[in-house]
Amino acid sequence: MIKRTKLFGTKTRVTFCLPKDAPPGAVSVVGCFNEWEPGRHELVTRKDGTRTVTVKLEPGRYRFRYLAAGGVWLDDDQADRIDHEGGELVL
Questions:
Q1: DSSP helix/strand/coil, 11
Q2: 45 with 51: CB under 8 angstroms?
Q3: pTM beyond 0.85, yes or no
Q4: Mean pLDDT to the nearest integer, 7-32
Q5: 41 near 30, Cβ under 8 Å?
Q6: What is the pLDDT of residue 22?
Q7: Domain segments of the chain: what residues?
């Protein structure tokens, strides 16, 4: 799940969310906004069991995917577009 919240000024707060233990182990959201660096935006477990991470982004187009433990790549079906390179957000 992806939640977008417009902030004062030009930025948007984007929260990436995955259900509890799906997939198991550590998961990072990686993309062009963080040079595809694993671990930089690792999802954190919340009280309800979901895992989230939030980033603030300027308007633009952003490519991203989730990278789970063991090198498993996942796409988010709530991305604005998904292709062979992963998801895309347009802000």
A1: coil
A2: yes
A3: yes
A4: 93
A5: yes
A6: 79
A7: 2-90
At residue 70, the 3 state secondary structure works out as: helix
Beta strand residue intervals within 35-74, DSSP E:
44-45, 51-57, 61-68, 72-74
**Could you say which architecture CATH assigns to the domain 2-90?**
Sandwich (2.60)
Read off the pLDDT of each residue in 40-57 and give the average, rounded to a whole number: 96
Query: Rounded distance, CA 80 to CA 39, Å?
Result: 24
Contacts of 35 (CB under 8 A, 6+ apart): none
Q: What are phi and psi of 69, to 5 degrees?
A: -55, 145
Q: Please state whether 27 falls in left (phi above 0), alpha (psi between -120 and 50) or beta.
A: beta
* Two structure tokens written together for 68: 């789970």
Cα–Cα distance, 86 to 76 (Å, whole number): 8
